[in-house]
Amino acid sequence: WDVNVCGTKNLLEIMKDNECYSIVFSSSATIYGLTNSVPISEEQNFSPINPYGKTKVAIENMLCDLFKSNINLWKIASLRYFNPVGAHPSGKIGEDSKGIPSNLFPYITQVAIGRLDYLQVFGDDWDTKDGFGVRDYIHIIDLAEGHIAALEYLKLKKSGFDFFNLGSGDGYSVLEIIKEFELSTGCNIPYKIHARREGDIAISIADIAKAKKILAWEPNKTLRQVCVDCWKWQSNNPNGYS
Ligand code: UDP
């Protein structure tokens, strides 16, 4: 709450002092929380189940109120990221988790490079196609292009507040990710089934129709490119940036 909510409030005050009224905010699919229907559109109710998601809801509310307080002034786009993954295709910029990674992809690449023995899979009894958790993974390059599209969109507007899902629009299970990573890199990823992780949900897939239509954006990268780029970065940087 301190970093996300208070930090955003401080940033907005400084922006106002400097007469800078355009902002693209990094929101999150976590705001939707438990949901019964996929794909998830922007109109779905918020039901965040962890503090991170609750702070993102609070910030979106703050941004909305700020916009309404002077509707001719602010230009705000809130981008709701699904699961950002991958690395820069050069292999020079990637995810260097501090300590043991908590997200799936950095965990898998550290197993692949031999820093971790095996992947712990958090549950194989979810109500999904194969019992494994399903997520919408979006390559960071597609995500970055979504930000450029949002900036271009804001540039054409006099003022406004809008929000967009940024995902691939496809859902893959943890098992499908393991298999695709093995296939595209030739690495072996041993795994063991563990209990479900607290705060996890079964499935999350984005409806990206709004971003496609209004931002004229769409993701181009495949899951294979995600795996290849992640592995390129990890194998070029076995111990991260250190
Ligand atoms: N997951 C897993 N083992 C891990 C990390 C993640 O089985 O070490 C699963 C997790 O339960 C979820 C998916 O992989 O189904 C994506 O998890 P991640 O933490 O990357 O993103 P989240 O959607 O939870 O923010």
Task: Explain what you see.
- Helix 2 links the parallel strand 1 (22-28) and strand 2.
- The strands form four sheets. The protein has a three-stranded parallel beta sheet with strand order 1-2-7, sandwiched between helices. The chain has a two-stranded parallel sheet with strand order 3-6. It has a two-stranded parallel sheet with strand order 4-9.
- The radius of gyration is 19 Å and the shape is globular.
- The longest helix has 19 residues, at 51-69.
- The chain has 242 residues and is of the alpha/beta class.
- It contains seven helices and nine strands; from the N terminus they run H-E-H-E-E-H-E-E-E-H-E-E-H-E-H-H.
- The protein has helices spanning 2-17, 51-69, 104-113, 140-155, 174-185, 209-214, 223-236; strands at 22-28, 75-81, 83-85, 119-122, 134-135, 137-139, 160-166, 172-173, 191-194.
- Helix 1 packs parallel to helix 2 and helix 5 (174-185) packs across helix 7 (223-236).
- The protein binds uridine-5'-diphosphate.
- Residues 83, 102-104, 107, 119-122, 133, 135, 174, 197, 200 line the site of uridine-5'-diphosphate.
